[in-house]
């Protein structure tokens, strides 16, 4: 299975009064992981936006396991769980430096036009990208 990894330095401003990462900041970490995965596969989400498409989150599930704290370095592991015509599901693990799982997650993204938010198939606008995703999913 193709898995991408992104390192995240936990910043003080991301923590709450208990000294742990505030739950909503994990979503930012997921975005970093997803962006790294796309980059590692040779593509750029920014270029997708430049040609008039966006990929909004349609569904997000996250389970918190062991709190991250200021000063720690987390690793976000990201992979493609499923790739369909206009939707892609990404899977994630956020890990402590010692490998302990801090959180697990999945997110479902649709591909839509920036103007009008009409669904569009990745195969139609970026066939190579679609083929790469399909190949990665098939290898799992």
TrEMBL record:
InterPro entries linked: 4-hydroxybenzoyl-CoA_TE, HotDog_dom_sf, YbgC/YbaW
Keyword Mitochondrion in annotation: no
Record Gene3D superfamilies: Hotdog Thioesterase
Family per similarity comment: Belongs to the 4-hydroxybenzoyl-CoA thioesterase family.
PANTHER family: 4-HYDROXYBENZOYL-COA THIOESTERASE FAMILY MEMBER, NOVEL THIOESTERASE SUPERFAMILY DOMAIN AND SAPOSIN A-TYPE DOMAIN CONTAINING PROTEIN (0610012H03RIK)
Domain of life (superkingdom): Bacteria
SUPFAM superfamilies: Thioesterase/thiol ester dehydrase-isomerase
A GO term, aspect molecular function: fatty acyl-CoA hydrolase activity
Keywords from the named record: Hydrolase
CDD domains reported in the protein's UniProt record: 4HBT (cd00586)
Organism taxonomic ancestry: Bacteria, Bacillati, Bacillota, Bacilli, Bacillales
Protein name: Acyl-CoA thioesterase
């Amino acid at each position: 299975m193709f898995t991408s990894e992104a390192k995240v330095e936990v910043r003080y401003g991301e923590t709450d009064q208990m000294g742990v990462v505030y739950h909503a900041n994990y979503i930012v970490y997921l975005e970093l992981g997803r962006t790294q995965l796309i980059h590692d596969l040779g593509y750029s989400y920014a270029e997708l936006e430049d040609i008039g498409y966006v990929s909004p989150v349609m569904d997000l599930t996250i389970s918190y396991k062991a709190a991250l704290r200021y000063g720690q370095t987390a690793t976000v592991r990201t992979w493609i769980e499923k790739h369909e015509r206009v939707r892609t599901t990404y899977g994630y693990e956020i890990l402590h430096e010692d490998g302990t799982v801090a959180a697990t997650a999945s997110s479902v993204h649709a591909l839509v036009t920036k103007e009008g938010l009409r669904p569009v198939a990745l195969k139609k606008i970026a066939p190579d990208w679609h083929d790469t995703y399909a190949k990665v999913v098939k290898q799992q």
